[in-house]
Write a structure and sequence with these properties.
By secondary structure, this protein is of the alpha+beta class. The protein has a domain of 39 residues. Helices cover 17% and strands 22% of the residues. Strands 1-2 form a two-stranded antiparallel sheet. Strand 1 and strand 2 form a beta hairpin. The longest helix has 10 residues. The model has no long low-confidence stretch (mean pLDDT 78).
């Protein structure tokens, strides 16, 4: 009868102010994700647009521009969405024992033959 009491226990509702890991995870997952890739009002993508047509041509019975002069507006990314210059530092110094000791290989002693 133990498995039935365990399953009955696991189906009990949690209190509204429960701080268990299941309730905490459920609350965190319900929050909207703040993605760094989501553009804000300041960020804008790069785009190009034609300024003037230099050469036209008949393509498939319709006249279309073949050569144009273009202007390019560079993208702008705000400081909040700019990626860091370096990746985050994952390791920290636990114990600094000073300068490292250089490796000196130990050779077996030998005798001169002569």
């Amino acid at each position: 009868m133990r498995p039935s009491t365990m399953s009955a226990y696991s189906r009990l509702p949690h209190a509204p102010d429960c701080d268990c890991s299941v309730c905490w995870s459920r609350r965190e997952m319900a929050k909207p994700a703040r993605s760094l890739s989501t553009p804000c009002a300041q960020c804008r993508p790069a785009y190009a647009r034609p300024i003037r047509t230099l050469q036209m041509g008949c393509v498939g019975g319709t006249w279309k521009p073949l050569v144009s002069e273009w202007t390019v507006e560079p993208a702008f990314i705000c400081e909040k969405h700019t990626p860091p210059d370096r990746p985050p530092k994952y390791w920290s110094v636990v114990l600094d024992t000073g300068r490292p000791t250089p490796y000196v290989p130990i050779h077996e002693p030998f005798e001169l033959v002569g």
